[in-house]
Design brief:
The chain has 71 residues and is an alpha/beta fold. It contains two helices and three strands, in the order βαββα. It has a three-stranded parallel sheet with strand order 1-2-3, covered by helices on one side.
Length: 71
């Protein structure tokens, strides 16, 4: 793509302080995790997990739920 990639998604959403520091040291601006994440830490932002098994309708419901309850 020849463009910088400022975002990182932790595999399976798992992270700890050490991995957050490593991602930051690699030059990423922010990183995304699953449920146990922080709104304040740019290297522990919340993301929604969607997989092939989720139909479009189920994906919309999950996105709506996450926005409503996770902020």
């Amino acid at each position: 793509l020849r463009r910088p990639c400022p975002d990182f998604a932790y595999p399976y959403g798992e992270h700890d302080q050490r991995t957050r520091q490593l991602v930051q040291s690699c030059g990423y601006e922010r990183a995304f995790a699953l449920w146990e994440s922080s709104r304040r830490d740019p290297f522990a932002q919340r993301r929604l997990d969607l997989y092939r098994r989720h139909t479009p309708a189920k994906a919309v419901l999950r996105a709506t739920f996450s926005r409503r309850f996770l902020g």
